[in-house]
UniProtKB/TrEMBL annotation:
Keywords: Signal. Pfam families: Hydrolase_2. The gene is sleB. GO terms for molecular function: hydrolase activity. This is Spore cortex-lytic enzyme. Residues 92-201 form the Cell wall hydrolase SleB domain. Residues 1-21 form the signal peptide.
Amino acid sequence: MRRIFLSLILSLMALPVSAEAVSRELSAMIERDETAIKRLSKARVDALFRRVSTGSVGSIQYTRSFLDALPAAQGGKHLNCLSEALYFEARGETIKGQFAVAEVIMNRVASSRYPDSVCGVINQGTGRKFACQFTYTCDGRAEVITEKSNYARLRKIAKLSMSDLPKTLTKGATHYHTTAVKPKWSRVFPRTAKIGVHLFYREPRA
């Protein structure tokens, strides 16, 4: 694409045309590209996320620019559950830290000790005092998403985390807490990683 773009510019520069004509032609080309992107089917967008997650289109970069270059993440209730969990649990974290929190949730989904769905894991214990697994689901406060652009970015993280993305950041962690607290279980659970303000732990093996 860059080569075509450069070639077009050089071709136009070689012609006796005005700067205004060059600007019109470039604007038309950009508009055509944007229209083509908007027409991508859901299947093709999902395929792009899978290709990124498996490394066939570069590798994961824990940066905003990398995420912003991806198309909007579309999905069902489980994508919504994970996106909301990331928003209320980790929206102030680094991009890498947000991926790590998503990884913990997906590690639980893969474990026989927890529910076998994303929404099931996140809502486990919700409604029972001191029994919820994720504080925001039972703190008694209405959860309102106000940072729309941040939430859109977190949906992309959720989409990638639910794909075949290798989950190696937390080394199998199923628990985490911020550095501001020290729950009792953290004294016996092996710590696997520290990313941003979160410490990550794996359950002791039986």
